[in-house]
Amino acid sequence: MLDKNGIAKRIAREVKDGMYVNLGIGIPTLVANYIPEGINVELQSENGILGMGPFPFEGEEDADLINAGKQTVTLLDGSSIFDSAMSFGMIRAQKVDLTILGAMEVSETGDIANWKIPGKMVKGMGGAMDLVASAKNIIVAMQQVNKAGESKLLPSCSLPLTGVRCIKKVVTELGVYDILPTGGFKLLERAPGISIEQIKNATAGKLIIEGDVPEMTV
């Protein structure tokens, strides 16, 4: 079973040279630490940064330099800082090649719920709705089951939706899944030590398994 860093490390393999990539709050921010050597990408934060680097080492943090999740970050040579209007202009103009988001629920048709739990106070929806409406490709980084052991890969989302039919791939602590255009989570890889039976028990939505599914390498 993968921890949060393992999920981020696996997703980093989906990042291709020359991409502009937005990292959402939570597990996605960890992807910045695992970009493969020789891959040049521009990491964007919706609060107004283009050219983020990995998290700073302890003692080297700059409290004025933060990402959208209010975590301290570093800047690479040639990076830019700008206002939110320009940042969302980039997003809405589809200048972002890949968006990596966290989620509370994902449906078998690619719907995502990641901004609100009814009855709980939230500051607002943030930029997730703009991101899912505008991104060319979206990968979700999430835990597959909640604290009660219930699946978060569902036939349909029960929480308020952020976007509809927009998610193409999900990476969890248990595996990697493509969401097919016809619906369903197609299992591509298993996390190290995880059995098909464990994955079946943790998936409430339609699960598609074809042939021998390999263990992922991270």
Description:
With 218 residues, this protein is of the alpha/beta class. The protein has a single domain (4-208), classed as Glutaconate Coenzyme A-transferase, CATH 3.40.1080.10. Helices cover 14% and strands 23% of the residues. The protein contains four helices and 13 strands. The chain has a ten-stranded mixed beta sheet, with helices on both faces. The termini are close together.
Topology:
Layout: H1 4-12, E1 20-23, E2 42-45, E3 49-52, E4 75-81, H2 84-92, E5 98-101, E6 105-107, E7 112-113, H3 128-134, E8 138-141, E9 153-154, E10 169-171, E11 175-179, E12 185-190, H4 196-201, E13 207-208
Parallel strand pairs: 1-2, 1-5, 5-8, 6-9, 8-10, 12-13
Antiparallel strand pairs: 2-3, 3-4, 6-7, 10-11, 11-12
Summarize the structure.
With 218 residues, the protein is of the alpha/beta class. The chain has helices at residues 4-12, 84-92, 128-134, 196-201, and strands at residues 20-23, 42-45, 49-52, 75-81, 98-101, 105-107, 112-113, 138-141, 153-154, 169-171, 175-179, 185-190, 207-208. Strand 6 (105-107) and strand 7 (112-113) form a beta hairpin.
CATH fold assignment: Glutaconate Coenzyme A-transferase
Number of strands: 13
Radius of gyration: 17 Å
CATH architecture: 3-Layer(aba) Sandwich
Percentage of residues assigned to helices: 10-25%
Tell me the number of helical segments per DSSP (H or I, 4 or more residues long): 4
Mean pLDDT, all residues? 93
Ends: how far apart? 12 Å
Structural class: alpha/beta
CATH superfamily: Glutaconate Coenzyme A-transferase
